[in-house]
Amino acid sequence: MATTIDVMGQFKLATALGPVGASVNFTNSNLTMVVVCVLILALMHLGMAPRAVIPGRLQAAAEMLYGFVHGMCIDQIGEEGKAFFPFIFTLFSFILFGNLFGLIPYQFTITSHLAITGALALFVVGLATVVGLRIHGMHFFSYFLPKGLPIILAPLIVEVEVISYLSRPVSLSFRLFANMMAGHVVFEVFASFMVVMAASLGILGYVMAVAPFALDVAMTGFELLVAALQAYVFAVLACMYLHDAVHLH
Amino acid sequence: MRRLLPAATLPLAVSALGVTPARAAVGLPQIDFANPLTTSQVVWGALIFAVLYVLLSRGALPKVASVLEERTRTIGADLDAAKAAKQQADTHATEVIRATREAQATAAAEVAQATAAAKAAAEAEAARATAALDAQLAAAEARIHAARAAAMGALREVATDVTSALAGRLIGHAPEAAAVNAAVGAALASRKA
Predict the structure, then answer these.
(1) Among A61, A218, A222, B61, which residue's CB has the most CB atoms within a 10 Å radius?
(2) Tens digit of pLDDT for each residue in B6-19?
(3) In this structure, is residue A78 part of a structural domain?
(4) List of chain B residues whose C-beta atoms are within 8 Å of the C-beta of residue A8
(5) Is A4 within the bounds of a domain?
(6) How many interchain CB pairs under 8 A, A with B?
(7) Spatial CA neighbour of A47 closest among B180, B114, B47, B59
(8) Between A5, A86, A115, which is nearest B38 by CB?
């Protein structure tokens, strides 16, 4: 019996919503994004609906999410961070819910696609650059020449700084994409082992399949951490880039 | 472009188990840029992200902010009310202490006044009683003096009569009244002395 294993199949894009979706190339990834957005909005609106002075569980969750991101914006960017708060909140909640939603079996993980994380990262760095130019004008480029630097080192350091600045979107997007993809690949590899063992080793295979199953269970807990952590890392780095743009070091 | 990052080790590991992978080399769908869906998902994603941003920044986030602000305001108002109530209670407590002290002072004064009045009344009563007793004593003494004087007066008469009678018996006739009288007077005078 030839069992076929395709661990990458879970990342495959397809059109969603039938012929209408197909006609505009609306993908399963986009459908998941819509679901994720609905979940975020549901949490915020249903949670805050009671407007209670003493919050219930759902309201506490919505308020904690709000307070967490708000605190992060103010801590990382400073008072100017309030202006970027809605964007950072959208970014963080979109990635967090995308990561967590992807952990539900058979669901698509939107953040496992380099095109998506790359677009987000490019937008963040682009936004930071535009904000920096808006606030400081041409003076913004002094960012690439740290103060108190011996002028002799300038050609070297400026190059390093420019390269480091340009590599920001790359590291930002690859970190999230690679983390999410790796986790899901490992999930599927262990799951495939179960199928393979059961198919090729008979009763013994069923017994042995408990091991990869246990690993997958343990991995689920670990991946919950990764999902939250990577969303946090992405948002915090976005805040730091915006801080650099606002304050120039 | 399709096989830029072949996950080479995985198919090997899988084929070691006697399994034929779906494809000879598994390409990453993520970098399959020949697939129009790879880019179309970004366009749709950007649109969805923008809609989420607008819905959050216009609707959900101000809602949370207003609830948090309301809570801060409510708590602040409650604290202020509590502070005002405490101040009022303090004022009332001070008032009560002050009133108690006043009442104590009034009571003490009244007690002192009543004691003084009672003392004065008692003294007056004692003085009156003393005076009455003194008057009675004086009257009694006066009466005794009078009685004594009266008795003394009667004594001379009785002595004269007795002397006259005794002398008459002795001499046989009534003696001269003037001589008796003088003798009695002399005898009384010597007794008095």
Answers:
(1) B61
(2) 444 444 444 444 44
(3) yes
(4) 7, 26-29
(5) no
(6) 148
(7) B59
(8) A115
Residue B78 contacts A where some CB pair is shorter than 8 Å: no
Q: How do residues A118-176 score in pLDDT, each as one tens digit? A: 999 999 999 999 999 999 988 888 888 877 788 888 888 889 999 999 999 999 999 99
Whole-angstrom Cα distance, residue B53 to residue B119? 96
pLDDT 10s digits, A5-27: 788 888 888 898 889 989 999 99
In the block, tokens 């216009």 appear at: B58
From the CA of A150, how many Å to the nearest CA of chain B? Answer: 42
Would you say A33 and B45 are in contact if contact means Cβ atoms under 8 Å apart? Answer: yes
Report how far residue A176's alpha carbon sits from residue A168's, in angstroms, rounded to the nearest whole number: 13
Structure tokens at A34: 């819509």
Sign for the pseudo-dihedral over CA of A81, A43, A38, A111: positive
Interface-testing mutation among B20, B49, B66, B75, with chain A (most A C-beta atoms within 10 A): B49
Whole-Å CA distances, A123 to A37, A126, A130, B27, B51: 19, 5, 10, 27, 15
Which residues 209-248 of chain A have a CB within 8 Å of chain B? none
Query: Are residues B60 and A45, on separate chains, in Cβ contact within 8 Å?
Result: yes
A117 within a domain of the structure (yes/no): yes
Name B83's Cβ contacts closer than 8 Å, sequence gap at least 6.
none
Residue A2 covered by a domain:
no
Show the domain range for A233.
Answer: 9-247
Interface membership of A87 toward B (CB under 8 Å)? yes
- Taking each continuous run of H as one helix and of E as one strand, the counts in chain B are 4, 0
Give me the number of domains chain A comprises: 1
Please tell me the distance from the alpha carbon of residue A71 to that of residue A82, in angstroms, as a whole number: 10
CB contact under 8 A, A25 and B36: yes
Identify the pLDDT of residue B11. 46
User: What is the predicted ipTM?
Assistant: 0.92
Q: What does the mean pLDDT of chain B come to?
A: 85
User: Which residues of chain A from 13 to 42 reach within 8 Å of chain B, CB to CB?
Assistant: 13-15, 24-27, 29-30, 33-34, 37, 40-41
The pTM of the full predicted model, rounded to 2 decimals, is 0.73
Which residues fall within 8 angstroms of residue A118, CB to CB, at 6 or more apart?
A169, A173, A177
Q: Do A8 and B17 touch (CB under 8 A)?
A: no
